[in-house]
Amino acid sequence: MSLRALLLAGAVAASATAAHGEILTVCPAASQDTACRFTGGEGIQVAVDAARDGDTVRLKAGRYIAVRYRDVPFQDLHIRGFVVVSGKRLAIEGEEGAILDGAQGPPTSAFVLDRAEVSLRNLAIRDFRYHREEDQIYDGHGVFAINSRVRLDGVRMERIVKMAITGRGDTQIDASDIRLLDGHMGVWLEESAHANIRNSVIQGGDSAAIGAYMNATVHLYNSVVQANGDDGLYATGRGSIFAANSLILGNKPFGLNAVEEGRIAVVHSVVHGNAADLDAKADKRAVHLGDGVVRLDPRIDAEWRPKAGSPIAGRVDPDFGRPIGLTGEAR
Questions:
Q1: Three-state SS sequence of the chain
Q2: What pLDDT is attached to residue 184?
Q3: How many whole angstroms separate alpha carbon 286 and alpha carbon 151?
Q4: Predicted confidence band of residue 11 (pLDDT cuts 50, 70, 90)
Q5: Model pTM?
Q6: Is the confidence at residue 134, as pLDDT, over 90?
Q7: Is 84 left (phi over 0), alpha (psi -120 to 50) or beta?
Q8: 233-263 tens-digit pLDDT
Q9: Non-local CB neighbours of 17 within 8 Å, separated by 6+ positions
Q10: Domains and CATH numbers, the chain
Q11: CA distance 127 to 158
Q12: For 241, how many CA atoms within 13 A lie in the half-sphere containing its CB?
């Protein structure tokens, strides 16, 4: 199978099935909207529990704060969720201005998806925190998916103190137009999880932007990985990351770091301005810079678009026909 066919097949496999059933509407606490069957932060979980396969849970604009939580066992851990979806196929989407706010209420993770098929769209997820930094209770995450199929579109996460997106087991994640900003780790995958990430920004984390562990795999396209504090892309175990048409800028200590049997391959991208682009002492086979990689200053604006005279202006990946950098509207 050609590389392009393989990657397209992965994208299809990762996509969660679209929901076409009933719409269950949730309003913020103290809402005066009499059309809402469900209200407040706890109303999201009640709506999820009431939903059947193919339904959509729609959040009206406003802030949603956890009142209660559920713990989902996984290995020797308990994943503590504000909203838990177990064994269902549904969509959760927000109107513009729908915010899950973890700064108040009990410390939780925003979403825990367990053996589920879920689409998350147009949501802001902010300030989720932990009770204890290191224990068997996993709180402080954004989306924690276990053996699930997940689609994220237009999801913005800010100041998530642990991992913004986690995939465990054989989870498949398809993410487009996401923003993971100023948190800890952007994307963390273990076991045989896979993520397909497009047109997204992972910026300002104090750990790695993307980490692939064990046998996990990541395909990254037309995205920005910038100013993260513990590597841009990191692969270990037998984890692997493939990046194309992307900007890997200003990360430390390394833009690209692969250890043990981990592998990273980058094509038609910019790798520039990191504390070190690569570990000079590492196995040269671990990180491969392929065709079309630019090591110069890309000369981009605040929205990551090339300025006049940029070395990436007009460059197009011949395999996919895409330019380097974001291809959709910036959020």
A1: CCHHHHHHHHHHHHCCCCCCCCEEEEECCCCCCCCCCEEHHHHHHHHHHHCCCCCEEEECCEEEECCCCEEEEECCEEEEEEEEEECCEEEEEECCCEEEECCCCCCCEEEEEECCEEEEEEEEEECCCCCCCCCCEECCCCEEEECCEEEEEEEEEECCCCEEEEEECCCEEEEECCEEECCCEEEEECCCCEEEEECCEEECCCCCCEEECCCCEEEEECCEEECCCCCCEEECCCCEEEEECCEEECCCCCCEEECCCCEEEEECCEEECCCCCCCCCCCCCCEEECCCCECCCCCECCCCCECCCCCCCCCEECCCCEECCCCCCCC
A2: 97
A3: 30
A4: very low
A5: 0.92
A6: no
A7: beta
A8: 999 999 999 999 999 999 999 999 999 999 9
A9: 89, 117, 119, 149
A10: 16-198 (2.160.20), 222-331 (no CATH)
A11: 6
A12: 31
State which amino acid sits at residue 18. Answer: A
| Token pair of 203 as six digits | 């910026």
Residue with tokens 């879920």: 118
The mean pLDDT value for 193-214 works out to 98
